[in-house]
Amino acid sequence: MQIEKPYLMFVGDVADQLAAKTAAGIVDWRRDWCVGQLRLPGCRADLGLEDLDIAEGVRRGARTLVIGVVNAGGVLPEHWISVIVEALEAGLDVASGLHRRLEEFPQIADAARHHGRQLHDVRIPSQSFATGKGSKRSGLRLLTVGTDCSVGKKYTALALEREMRAQGLDADFRATGQTGILISGRGVAVDAVVADFISGAAEWLSPEADPHHWDVIEGQGSLFHPSFAGVTLGLLHGAQPDAFVVCHEPTRRTMRGVPTALPSIRAVIDATIANGRLTNPGIRCVGIAVNTQALDEAAARACLAEIGQAEALPTTDPVRFGVADIVKRVREIFG
Amino acid sequence: MQIEKPYLMFVGDVADQLAAKTAAGIVDWRRDWCVGQLRLPGCRADLGLEDLDIAEGVRRGARTLVIGVVNAGGVLPEHWISVIVEALEAGLDVASGLHRRLEEFPQIADAARHHGRQLHDVRIPSQSFATGKGSKRSGLRLLTVGTDCSVGKKYTALALEREMRAQGLDADFRATGQTGILISGRGVAVDAVVADFISGAAEWLSPEADPHHWDVIEGQGSLFHPSFAGVTLGLLHGAQPDAFVVCHEPTRRTMRGVPTALPSIRAVIDATIANGRLTNPGIRCVGIAVNTQALDEAAARACLAEIGQAEALPTTDPVRFGVADIVKRVREIFG
């Protein structure tokens, strides 16, 4: 899957900004891929882009209509379907992060076929994978891992890609979830792959590369999350990272969606090294990314200092303070 | 999925006994569920059952035609399709371990619909699962784990079920792969579940039960197999075993299908406890099952003695010497 750029961002008529979270993430990281936003009457979200209709979007060069919003109830409203069909008729592909496949709607499927357009359902892998091989590939890889789900693994990986490039490294973000796929225009939702092929999908995602090239791979779940650790382990084995960054949210007490206590950062470092050695004996932790959103600046600085000292690793909040120190550490170790 | 018993075993016209391996496993463990075998001219496999045609199978009470054979090339020959259709017309359900879904063959799908019969593709989960909850369920659980794939995890679990029942325990085998599903008439092929739902599928497979009831759960893969460890970890978390048995093949040097070296039994015990504690802090190893098929009896006894002494655990070859000592240990610990 390779989603054609640039994008016309479809916001529909969602009730609040939260419903447009995926679209907002795309604009945060890839504003220059977005020619504008398409909003319907009553829309209460705003991506901060120019409002365009489909015809104007096409004139500005848009290749794909991106549906990065969730609608109440999870169903696709009839008046959204007609906009999607209109976009296909105007020559746009459509990329969607919705739960239901675009193909399931006959009007959309027919219009795509009739006009020769692509439908991208980024939640659902469209290709088949081989099982993982486990053998070492050339190139360098960094994986973000976490004490839990939803602690900033995607954001950290994107911040690392940006900072690595700024510091002169050759680096590419590799997406493993739907928002990341829309942000990078490619990738695979590893949690939606058939279980036998998790590590194989990760190997496909980050193929052999130039010895100095970095793939910065978006992590998923946590080795300590009882719902999703299998995905995390398969991704770790397939990604075979040389380096990893632990992402953490210091005010969280239990894992997302379950009553299980959060593991310590040290436990995550140890488990990641113990398991990661299977496919890359040289694996090492290069930093810690802490989401301090819930803390004021003084408390955030104190928290980072404490963790950084305890673990003797560059420790930062990527949003507040950037990731320059982690990338500096990467360059010191790997040249 | 609940496959109706008894079975008429379809052997087709396969070229050798190996092609009927799944069917032979069913007969090994559930001979009293098998009313007979249906062989076509030229068949070179023999399950040691009476040869019956469909009409006679139905007269003897068969409810399901079981296709536990693989045909050369992986395609379903035309003359097998007509036998399957004939079975559906005669009122039998059909259960298949073939790679392709029975539904994909229009004649079979039509006949099943027309005659109101069930088609069971045991490789492909037919239900949807919730994500794993991770909370403790009542009842006792034993999981077989391995140093590698294909080291006897299914056989060991079935032998444990039989011996536990013989020693007066209330025990049920829980199948996680296609052959196991046909042997137990139910279960889920966990390696075919969408990655997000591995542990959820394992929780579904082994629900809350009487406090003294044992589920003996068939393990999959190995925590040290770079292709499949994600499946193994999700299954471990969802199964939340109180007890586990490590299965091992002493002559194997590299993991099945990959160049990775085999882990030690000790490494597997340690990793299983470290990871299993997340959903069951009381997890413990109760024995080791060694497949000594490649050794003569003296060498086998020496191998078992050496491993048993090193690990201070009941150590046996389930095929050669049974699993009575392991079950004795289980009763000592759990009452």
UniProtKB/TrEMBL annotation, chains A, B:
Sequence ranges assigned to domain D-glutamate N-acetyltransferase-like N-terminal in this UniProt record: 50-125
InterPro entries on file: DgcN-like (IPR011669), DgcN-like_C (IPR035086), DgcN-like_N (IPR035402), P-loop_NTPase (IPR027417)
SUPFAM superfamilies assigned: P-loop containing nucleoside triphosphate hydrolases
Species for this entry: Labrys okinawensis
Protein name: DUF1611 domain-containing protein
Domain D-glutamate N-acetyltransferase-like C-terminal: start-end pairs: 129-327
Signal sequence bounds: none
